[in-house]
# Entry
Amino acid sequence: MAAALVTACSRPLANYHPSVWGDRFLHNTPKSTDTEAREKQVVEELKEDVKRELKEALNDYTRQLKMVDAIQRLGIEYHFEEEIEEALQNVLEQFDDYCKNNHEMYTTALSFRLLRKHGFRVSCQIFDKYKDNEDGFRVPDSDKVIAVLEFFEAAHLRIHGEDVLDHTVVFTRNYLESILPSLSIPIAENFSIRFEEDLNFSFLTTILLAGGGKV
# Structure
């Protein structure tokens, strides 16, 4: 009776396919203490190099913006919080004069985005100079695609009542979507990913900025 019950309750064997990874992870050899120490030393040296370059870039408005943006996109900004704060304070001090005397859309939009992202109150009126007479915008940069993409990202840090940025979102999205078919596959995929990231990010940042919080 007991044997019959065990037979009746036994589960069928699953015939799974072998893992495509094989047993490579079963043979993973831990790193030696010396190897880990050397790797940590290399990392620390690289961090110091980046900190030094950020310091050196304080006299170059565009270079320091690009460095901060690159560090943040790599997701390693927590290593350089003090240096980034110093760089953005420096950008803020020059922001109004730079935007008044320069017409490059890419740098203007990049500085606006980074400052707002870090909680600095900067005016969107700096973009009024790019408006044309047909509810669109003029793009003076030689590389229009990169400039409009940065303008697109900056516009998603708008708050209620900023009509120029509401128009910017529509204009830049239509422009970028219209040129996607003509771009090479890697660039088009990169743009598509950034579109999705910005659309998901815009609602949260609008709430935080309107409430006075930092993003």
User: Anything to note?
Assistant: The chain has eight helices and no strands. Residues 201-215 have pLDDT under 50 and may be disordered. Helices lie at 2-9, 33-56, 61-73, 81-101, 105-117, 144-155, 163-179, 185-210.
